[in-house]
UniProtKB/TrEMBL annotation:
Transmembrane portions of the chain: 158-178
Gene3D superfamilies: Aldehyde Dehydrogenase, Chain A, domain 1 (3.40.605.10), Aldehyde Dehydrogenase, Chain A, domain 2 (3.40.309.10)
Organism superkingdom: Eukaryota
InterPro entries xref list: Ald_DH/histidinol_DH (IPR016161), Ald_DH_C (IPR016163), Ald_DH_N (IPR016162), Aldehyde_DH_dom (IPR015590), Aldehyde_DH_NAD(P) (IPR012394)
Gene from which this protein is expressed: LOC104727580
Residues covered by the Aldehyde dehydrogenase domain: 10-134
Keywords, ordered alphabetically: Membrane, Oxidoreductase, Transmembrane, Transmembrane helix
Lineage: Eukaryota, Viridiplantae, Streptophyta, Embryophyta, Tracheophyta
Name used for this protein in its record: Aldehyde dehydrogenase family 3 member I1, chloroplastic-like
PANTHER family per record: ALDEHYDE DEHYDROGENASE (PTHR43570), ALDEHYDE DEHYDROGENASE FAMILY 3 MEMBER I1, CHLOROPLASTIC (PTHR43570:SF25)
Family: Belongs to the aldehyde dehydrogenase family.
Length: 183
């Protein structure tokens, strides 16, 4: 990512690598090309791309214009801005004035939204994510309607269509062999 055209010359801090030891120094890049992999792919390393904007709301729009992130962070003491960020940004988790503490709080769900993942983990949230709620229907054999089974005569089709349309009057008419259109 760092060697890509338009990225290497945007490093403002760090950038040192030792490939044979798989080491990368913490690195900050500013205003790299939107199409570069560092702006398009998940980053699993100490790389921080910074996008400059005219006003903070433009930054919210930059976040909303992309797939939902696993986490989003805002650093400010401005309560209105904090609330605006929480309300306008969709992410797996949001932290205000911190970056990793929310992952350690067992009572907060942590997980992605959309492309950043599905479900959440921590405490009961893990249990619910990895549990399947099974729907079960019990009914007796009595009262079974011949209407449910083939062959589907014209009368059966008329009744079923009326029932599926949730029109009880049409269903009653159809049951007696009449179409509501013919009334």
């Amino acid at each position: 990512m760092l060697k890509e055209n338009g990225v290497a010359n945007k490093i403002v801090h760090g950038g040192q690598t030792i490939e044979e030891k798989l080491k990368i120094s913490p690195t900050i890049v500013v205003d790299v090309p939107e199409a570069s992999s560092i702006m398009q792919e998940e980053i699993f390393g100490p790389l921080l791309p910074i996008v400059t904007v005219e006003k903070i709301e433009d930054g919210f729009q930059v976040i909303r214009s992309k797939p939902k992130p696993l986490a989003a962070y805002l650093f400010t003491n401005n309560k209105e801005l904090q609330e605006q960020f929480v309300q306008s940004v969709s992410a797996g988790g949001i932290s205000i004035n911190d970056t990793v503490l929310h992952v350690t709080v067992k009572d907060l769900p942590f997980g992605g939204v959309g492309e950043s993942g599905i479900g959440a983990y921590h405490g009961k949230f893990s249990y619910e994510t990895f549990s399947h709620k099974k729907g079960v229907l019990y009914r007796s054999f009595s009262g079974d309607a011949d209407l449910r089974y083939p062959p589907y005569t014209q009368k059966k089709k008329m009744v079923l269509k009326a029932l599926l349309s949730s029109n009880i009057f049409a269903a009653i008419w159809a049951f007696f062999g009449f179409s509501q259109d013919s009334s």
